[in-house]
DNA sequence: CTGAAAGCGCTTACAG
DNA sequence: CTGAAAGCGCTTACAG
């Protein structure tokens, strides 16, 4: 076989099979298979000749056939009900990132909030013999509209309520809130308010509790968190309450920790409109680190980042090890958040 | 077989095979297969008995095996370089929506802008014998970092530069721009400005040209479009230029058509800060209809929606028909936009 | 009307 | 060192 022969174009309309490679190399299919997989015993020369033939023919093994034999499809399903959301996206990127390196592809399924659609997708994935499933959502305190509790493949939950006995990954919201409040303290702020979303969200309470804890640990006054919507409008309304003249200027906060970035943006806009300076008079911190919002506020917003991509990676790796037969401790694992400092809090007093 | 027997739980750890169904029903695998697929001739009674057995055993055919035979995997690949982006998301939802109804699952692959990663993903998909590939991006004038021009499966391009001879779907940006400008005209606005993104984007010119065309058709003055960034900051800067005192109040626009929603938000904020009323004094229209932005502006923003989900659906259906062997006219197909009216333009003069 | 056989593309004991 | 055989789970001509 001349060594300057060109490799066949991948574009061949019908894929070349092992049988053809074997024929071209003058060996049996079994030998060809072994040569390419590094299995069996044979002369280095034979092995290399077969490999070279395969290369020239542009041979690529049919994974469907391999999967059938191996009982492993190198495929996983990713279930979400947050297609449009900003949460599942970075998460998915992380999942896919972790899995691609291991040669596994991911089926993306959006199940909306439709149990019938969810059921359909899960069955389709099972029929296609996925090795496992990752379920992601937009809230840790809500289930996807599907029962994944008794499947014959492992399931990992990320950012959504896990079934009992299953493994779930979430961000450490309490830790994230601590990061924010402690940052304020470090900057010398002492009258710290908290404006957050609806009481119906578990994270609202988790974050509020951490806020209280930190202040109490420092023997500072805790003002009751203001709960409302996850919106800019509510952020503006909250400013009207917090900075009312009735309260007296000295009663005004010098820092506001917000439950998400949209609230924070509303807060910053309303403060500016009242002539209150950010960060000179008041520091503001958001949650989510949604760049498109955080970078557009004036000044740019310091915000807690939940490290969703990392969370996705962990979820992917956890699933992989379950698929590989490694037992995993069931229960919820919390991953740390990080604070992304921009310009809405100012510099430390002596800084 | 007692009719009140419970169907086996789907959770059986090892899936039941056709062979087991056949054995339980006392027929051959061939007959069982035909019974379940509605093929072959047999008594209705036999067929029903086999079906009932399959149901009771919780039989689900192994798609890997079926695919191997049928040479069709009912699987497609979706390639994107816009994981975090708001464009590919609705688009993906549409694609997936169109395909799920046909029993096809989609592999999602984010190739970033990395040719090596792109190559890897394409090969993985091909190895898994996808029936076809949909390539989506964030710009019609940019290629994905992969060569998809000579694959052995059909490819459809959505919202990204198609290869010559391939089929591509994009939004009709000129039409969308017309929608916006004509809406202003209908409301009696006559001094319409256009603020858009960088000149390096093809859509910037397409939309600007349509803006000019409409005004010329109505013999109205065309002011040169202001090009800058796709950002709120640029929207604010543009207002400073458009509404400078030097120009004289009577030279101020009474409408601003913006190249995207972020620019529009900057424009609205800046106008409010200058005490210019929206929509009383100036109407504003954005592009993209990115709800999170459009609904948060004060007042809420009227915006051109590119119907990306519909575009995704069309892409999915186009691919399906190509996979089915139907020839498709190559070239770019443009899908209409629609105007989503909120409150940033006011009501018609006599309205 | 039903079943035995061949085969999709590959891998893996098992012989020689 | 290499090959023939059996088999993954299914489908589809082809006999009977």
From TrEMBL, chains A, B:
Q: Which GO terms describe its molecular function?
A: DNA-binding transcription factor activity; transcription cis-regulatory region binding
Statement: the UniProt record of this protein carries the keyword Ribonucleoprotein? no
Q: Which UniProt keywords apply?
A: DNA-binding, Repressor, Transcription, Transcription regulation
The UniProt entry, under Pfam families, shows: LacI, Peripla_BP_3
Q: Where is the signal peptide?
A: none
Tell me where on the tree of life, at the top rank, the source sits. Answer: Bacteria
- Sequence intervals crossing the membrane: none
Keyword Ion transport listed: no
Q: In which organism is this protein found?
A: Mesorhizobium tamadayense
- Name-wise, this protein is LacI family transcriptional regulator
Q: Which Gene3D superfamilies match?
A: 3.40.50.2300, lambda repressor-like DNA-binding domains (1.10.260.40)
Identify the residues that the record assigns to the HTH lacI-type domain, covering every copy. 16-70
